[in-house]
Every structure is written in structure tokens, then in C-alpha cells.
Amino acid sequence: MVSIKLDYRFLENYDHLFTVGNKKPSPIAQAFTSLMTLTGISRLFEKEDVYELVKRAHLLFPEQDMITDFFENDVLLYFSVNQKIHQLDAGNLKEFIGFEIADVNENHVSFERWATNIPNYKTHAALISSYGEILNLDTSRSNVSGNLDNLEIDFGNRPDDVPFTHEDVTKAEHFASAVIKSIPAAAYDRLKAQFPNKFRELEMRKAPFDEPVFDFGSFPVEKQKELWQHFFPQMENFDDAPTREYYERLIHLAWLWSNGFVIDEDINWVHIDFRIKSLDPEDLEVEDDSNDLLNIKMLHNLDEIFPLLHDPEIAKLAERPWENLNIYS
Fold first, then answer.
1. Which residues contact 278 (CB under 8 A, 6 or more apart)?
2. How far apart are CA 291 and CA 280, in angstroms?
């Protein structure tokens, strides 16, 4: 899962998406953020992104008769806030073209990856909602259900556990194909014409990349010892496999950080360069069950071993030329 970082600046108009008098997103904006989080959509830039959003929403909310509501009332989804009924309609879909909720390389995760991890996406949305960032759309009767009151959701679902039938998916695909026809091509054309550097940036970020290989065992023995003693001064647990595996991951994180592969300019959104696939932050939980990278860095004083791990040749690979682009022009 990725951290939510809302960006409305690619929308044609967005002032009305905030509650009058403060900067809190309106119920419509919060619901859209929740829906995108639940469906694994990070940005709505292309027709395919909208198609996947609608397709997955149809599968996720089977109790809502989306097909009838859409063709009879132009409504995609109903939701309530403080006993008041709101709706997401076709007009909302159009005005949210350009909405980004996470600054990642891909606009959306693949359908297969989403469908086999729905409980995780539901939990992620519920946790963000608990911090007051977005509404918590009720998915308690969705095809993959869980008790969202206490977040006791089964994380063990395998692909064959997800009860979508072929007919379910086909029906959702036909519905999504019909819905995207309601959005004129001009909505997407406006985005590309107004923000060419954003599209250039995304293409640059997807360019082939040879990820540097981290191998603790390849370090000279003296360096291995010095690094290990940062955590265990008497070299304890060095030969304990589970402990070694975890602390090698911490050293891997420090190695990435020291060479520029952890982006930390914004302390509210510290993350590993998305080109790095060899280290998953989910594997770095600490005592409070947090995998927040800044928290991990401070808890273990990882910056103290940065000088041991910095490699100028590796650091060159961390260059991100797209960061010099003004993506809002």
C-alpha cells in the first residue's frame, strides 16, 4: 500500500471541492478518495483508469444496483454523511479527471493484484479514514467482506478465495465500458494539453532501470562487523537467522537511504524510490507495528551508519531527472 497524498491541481476546477471556510475536502472529494483507495487507483488521467475504477467499484459494492442507478438516474454510487444522502454521478467522474491520490509510477495497480488483495485495500482505506482524511465507504457487504468495526480482516486470501465469478467480472466490464462513454474525450485532452510535463514525468519514471543489488554478505567482514555492532555491540544474534534477516533489511534500508533512494524532502511523505523493488517497507515493522520509514530511521539511528554505506557509484543511479520538471506546466 502507498501513502495518500492528494493533489487536486491537475483538475479543471477544484475550489468547490473543499468545504467553505476551511481546507477540509468536501464529502464528494472524500468519497472519491475513499473509492480510489479501495479500488487501487492512484490517479484518474486516462480512460483506462476510469474504466478500472468503475469496474472494481461495481464488484466491490454488489448491494448497490449501480447499473439501474446509472442508466435511470445518472448516479454511480450513493453514500451518507451525517444522515444526509450524497451521490457520485457521471458529472463527478468528469470533473475528477486529473485527480491524484498517490504520487506513484503507475496510475493503478493491475486488476489481478487488486482482486487478490481486496482485504488489504479495505483496511488501508479504513485506517486512513480513522485519521480523519477520508470517508469510510461501507464495504461490509462487499464480495470480500470483513468486520470493519475492529478491522479484523483476513489477510490470507489467495486468488482462488476471491468469490468473483466470470459472470461478475464480465458484467462489471460491460458496465464500465458503458460508463466511460459518458465522459467526452475533451476531458482527457484538456489534461494532456495543460500539463504535458506531468505526462513526460510519468514516462520518464517508467523508463527501464537497472536496480542496484544489495548484498550484505558481499561486504568485507570488517564492515559487516562494524555495521552489526551498530545494533548489537557484542555481536550477539549475528548467527541467528531470523534476527539476521530482519536487521539485514534495516541495513538495506540504510544503504538505500545513504545513496539517495529514499525520498525524504517532505517529512509527511517519506518513501522509497518506486523504482526499487527489492525492499518492501511492509517488511520493516517496528515495536509499535509501524513501518513509517522516518520512525524506523530515528528508532535505530540509521543515519549513524550512512557513511559506512554510501557508495558514489550507487548514488549516481539514484538520480531522478524528472524532478527538474515543472509538472504543473
1. 211, 213, 214, 252
2. 10
Which H helix or E strand runs over 123? Answer: helix 118-130
**Which range is most confident: 4-13, 100-109, 302-311?**
302-311
Q: Cβ contacts of residue 115 below 8 Å, gap of 6+?
A: 59, 159, 162, 164
CB of 172 closer than 8 Å to CB of 58: yes
The Cα angle at residue 158 between residues 156 and 278, in degrees rounded to 5: 80
pTM over 0.85: no
108 bridge partner residues: 41
**Grid cell at residue 87:** 451521490
Q: b/e string for 186-205 if b means 16 or more Cβ within 10 A?
A: ebbeebeeebeebeebbeeb
What does the pLDDT read at residue 145?
37
Q: Cβ–Cβ contacts within 10 Å for residue 296, how many?
A: 21
Return the domain boundaries, the chain. Answer: 15-194, 216-324
The sign one gets for the Cα dihedral 46, 51, 56, 62 is positive
Bridge partners (DSSP) listed for residue 77: 88
